[in-house]
């Protein structure tokens, strides 16, 4: 599962500049594209911070430091990451 997630994230890192370049050239212009995607980036960072701060969104860990996360916790984390 970790290999799949890293591959998907790496692929998104390579594809997103192409999508941003298309929007910049076709619709928004350079500065509006930078501003728009910066806002999306900030929202992602806020979601990641919330997923690490709120007790209900943190995985439960046992005495052996093995953590078990729920589907909601995983979903919020990947929403912020992607």
- Ranges with pLDDT <50 over ≥5 residues? none
Number of helices: 3
In total, how many domains does the architecture comprise? Answer: 1
Series of secondary-structure elements, N-terminal to C-terminal:
HHEEH
Strand content: under 5%
Shape: elongated
Instruction: Specify the helix fraction band.
Output: over 70%
Task: Give the spatial strand order of the biggest sheet.
Answer: 1-2
Structural class: mainly alpha
How many individual β-strands?
2
Give the termini separation.
Answer: 16 Å
Please state the average pLDDT score: 87
> Rg from C-alpha positions?
16 Å
Summary tags:
mainly alpha, two-stranded antiparallel sheet, 82 residues, membrane, elongated, MFS_trans_sf, POT_fam
């Amino acid at each position: 599962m970790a290999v799949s997630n890293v591959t998907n994230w790496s692929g998104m890192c390579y594809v997103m500049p192409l999508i941003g370049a298309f929007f910049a050239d076709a619709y928004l212009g350079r500065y509006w594209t930078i501003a728009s995607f910066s806002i999306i980036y900030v929202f992602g960072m806020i979601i990641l911070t919330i997923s690490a701060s709120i007790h209900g969104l943190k995985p439960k860990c046992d005495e052996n430091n093995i953590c078990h996360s729920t589907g909601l916790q995983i979903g919020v984390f990947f929403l912020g990451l992607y």
